[in-house]
Amino acid sequence: MSGRNFRLSATSGLSNPSPYNILYGFEVDIINSVHFSNHTGYNVVKGSRLTVDELRSIFQGLMANDLFDYDYILTGYMGSGELLHVVAEYISLIKSKSPHVRYLCDPVIGDNDMVTPNDFELEQLIGRKIDFTSNNNNKEHVLWQSLQSLHSLGPSHIIISSISADKTGGTNAMLQMYASSKKSDNNYQTFRIDFPYLSGCFTGTGDSFSALVLAWFHREKNLITACEKSISILHQILVKTIELSKLINTHNTCGNELSLIESRTAIEAAEILFHAILTDITH
Questions:
Q1: How many angstroms separate the CA atoms of 1 and 267, rounded?
Q2: Contact by Cβ (8 Å): 126, 146
């Protein structure tokens, strides 16, 4: 696996997903939108934020030197709307010069190819609540309709990273991932993956999932396999994190830091533990 990946997000480096991309053979260019002493789950956070002018200057340098031949662009959470506008502007410019670039976006802005919202974020994006009680005979269909609404805003691939299975008629002991790829107008490939809920509070799961999906989608060119591998790897990382039960810093209000180094074997092996179930959204 090889490729060039540009990543822009808010990170202190503690939950930076770059180890995945480097391990899988990516050359990664990173712009941190913050330079903090630690993530914001701690009681005290010291450091600085990237300004709009600084971000624009970095993009201008990349463009002036033709340093934009990326395979993928991955953005994560950013705390400033002004930064998002600059990101959207330059991602559109980069894609106009390098149409092959795929963009995986956590906050949904600009010209997206792939997005990974949770169910709450999905509701914010489509502008309405997902009412699972509106169709008790097929609660999943309500969710698929919401994904189609989001497709209409631009993304080709949508992954709802996790939702409690009890919302769709299952048990709260399980979580579900729902994903949809738009093949053409009114033609979607949809699937879900069921996996067990693990009790605990963890830092960095969202960033890690996005990085894993990007890496495996690049290799497999198949969203189903990429999601199967990504959620299986992340599950094993969480199991290892729980198993090691490291003492949580008393100043950290967000819980466990992921045991990434200790999970290297699982990350490399990429064993599929949970398999996709294909669905038909026409019913």
A1: 14
A2: yes
Non-local CB neighbours of 24 within 8 Å, separated by 6+ positions:
1, 215, 216, 219
Closest CA to 30 of 49, 6, 51: 6
CA atoms within 13 A on the CB side of 83: 20
- Contact predicate 181/157, CB 8 Å: yes
Are 149 and 141 spatial neighbours (Cβ–Cβ below 8 Å)?
Answer: no
pLDDT digits (tens, 9 = 90+) for 221-272: 899 999 999 999 999 999 999 888 766 666 666 667 888 889 999 999 999 9
Q: How far apart are CA 79 and CA 88, in angstroms?
A: 15
CA-to-CA distance for 12 and 52, rounded, in angstroms? 19
Is the four-CA dihedral 91, 40, 159, 256 of positive or negative sign? positive
Pairing state between β 102-105 and 26-32:
unpaired
CA distances to 123, 168, 281 from 131, in Å: 10, 10, 17
How far apart are alpha carbons 185 and 102 in whole angstroms? Answer: 20
How far is the C-alpha of 149 from the C-alpha of 141, rounded, in Å? 12
Token pair, residue 66, equals 């033709």
- Tell me what the mean pLDDT of segment 150-169 comes to: 90
Extract the tokens encoding 1: 């696996």
Question: HEC string of 249-276?
Answer: CCCECCCEECCCHHHHHHHHHCCCCCCE
d(CA 196, CA 187): 30
